[in-house]
Amino acid sequence: MLVVDDDPAVSEVVARYLERDGHEVRQDPRKLTGPPDLLILDMNRLAVGRELRARWPVPVIILGEAIELAVDLDADADDYVTKPFSPRELALRVAAVLRRARGSIVPAGTGVLRDADLVVDVGARHVRLGDAEVTLTAREFDLLVYLLRNPRQAFSRTDLLDRVWGWAFGDSSTVTVHVRRLREKIERDPTDPGRIITVWGVGYRYEPMS
After folding, report:
1. Where is the Response regulatory domain (predicted)?
2. Positions in the chain short of pLDDT 70
């Protein structure tokens, strides 16, 4: 995997910790000889991710300050980790993303889920909104499927971390970021969502349009 952070000390600590878990880690994209299993990138190094993902379909974890992750990101990511973080927490996130990328964490079952003009083919992992195809990251897709299968139920961010991410603990801000990005892709007006509704003091619920 590739680790690139603006602070070389952070890259070094992360690399050493992941190597202890048995991963082969590079810190210089020029030294890659093939597609890495995973990219771990600082917010300021997103261009590296775009360049590599244009060549290979590689999962990405983005590292950034909370205020950075709250703004609109111009690159899809499979997960977001807020700085400062513990190396162990990052290692757990890495393990979860790799399991998902290798197909061991996917929405159970197949079939097609429909809500008005939104059509989700679970088995094919394909989404359409009207006549347009919607491109989702793996995590965004799993989150959408879970909400569609459980309409009109309010879930806390902790609930969603457990049931979609498979984490018993973690930074719930990653749920907030994924919900925002999902709204941008499936809502007519992301600033006034009609499908993924914020339940104040709780979390989110999916409200069918049909």
Report:
1. 1-98
2. 66-76, 101-110, 167-170
What pTM does this model have? Answer: 0.61
Q: Which two tokens stand for residue 205?
A: 């619920």
pLDDT of residue 104: 43
Rounded Cα gap, residues 196 and 183, in angstroms = 7
Cβ neighbours around 24 below 10 Å, total: 10
Q: Which CATH class is domain 112-206?
A: mainly alpha
Task: For 65-91, write each residue's pLDDT tens digit.
Answer: 765 555 444 456 778 888 888 888 898
Give the burial class of 177: count Cβ atoms within 10 A of its Cβ; 0-12 exposed, 13-18 middle, 19 or more buried.
buried
Sorted by where each begins, the domain ranges of the chain are 2-101, 112-206
Please give the full DSSP string across the chain, using - where no structure is assigned: -EEE-SSHHHHHHHHHHHHHTT---BS-GGG-SS--S-EEEEGGGHHHHHHHHTTS---EEEEEEHHHHTSPPSS--SEEEEES--HHHHHHHHHHHHHHHTTSS--SS--EEEETTEEEETTTTEEEETTEEE---HHHHHHHHHHHHSTT--EEHHHHIIIII--SS--THHHHHHHHHHHHHH-SSTTS-SSEEEETTTEEEE----
Asked whether the CA dihedral 189, 183, 82, 160 is positive or negative, the reply is: positive
Q: Do 198 and 206 form a contact (C-beta atoms < 8 A)?
A: no
- Supply the CATH classification number for the domain 2-101: 3.40.50.2300
